[in-house]
Design a protein that fits this description.
177 residues, alpha/beta, Nucleotidyltransferase, domain 5, 45% helix, 20% strand, globular
């Protein structure tokens, strides 16, 4: 699967393989784009297309839009999301969208968890030696992990609270590494 933290200057990405109940972080990083907006969108499109052709994921886990005070920032994120969805559609990928609070809840057990708490849980869940950087890559890994823990169903983000999976300290004992 491919986790994407969308944007128009930086796009965090994470390629994750799922094997039964476990998942492996294969590759993660950030696609950077420079120049005017049309050139950045084209660079993001080309970078994601090349990544998808190489990694061949079947699912795109994408951060859903959230409402904030900065309308311009939301617009830019929306443009980055559109490019990711276009690449997914062109390659026959399923798209799963998760709001930030759902990702934080799935990964760290708290919808208001700090970025540091999410980074620690991502590091532990994937058995990484150190926390991934930059934060955009960590966010993409968290999106992929959220999709894995939600059973791989795109609509899982809207499950009723009583059916949502929460991480416990007992879960940490069973993580690889």
């Amino acid at each position: 699967m491919l986790g994407i933290d969308p944007g128009t200057l930086r796009v965090g990405f994470a390629v994750v393989d799922r094997h039964g109940a476990s998942q492996v972080a294969v590759e993660w990083g950030v696609l950077r784009a420079r120049g005017e907006l049309p050139a950045r969108l084209l660079a993001i499109y080309a970078g994601l297309t090349e990544l998808v052709k190489r990694a061949r994921p079947s699912v795109l886990a994408l951060e859903d839009v959230f409402f904030g005070k900065d309308v311009r920032a939301m617009e830019k994120i929306g443009e980055g999301r559109a490019i990711a969805k276009l690449v997914a559609a062109q390659h026959g990928m399923q798209v799963a969208e998760y709001p930030p609070a759902t990702v934080k809840r799935a990964v760290a057990g708290n919808g208001a968890a700090s970025k540091e708490a999410v980074a620690r849980m991502v590091t532990a869940a994937f058995g990484l030696r150190e926390q991934p950087t930059p934060a955009d890559a960590t966010d993409a890994l968290a999106l992929a992990l959220c999709h894995c823990t939600r059973g791989g169903a795109p609509q899982a983000a809207s499950l009723p609270r009583s059916r949502r999976r929460r991480w416990t300290t007992e879960d940490l004992r069973h993580l690889p590494g």
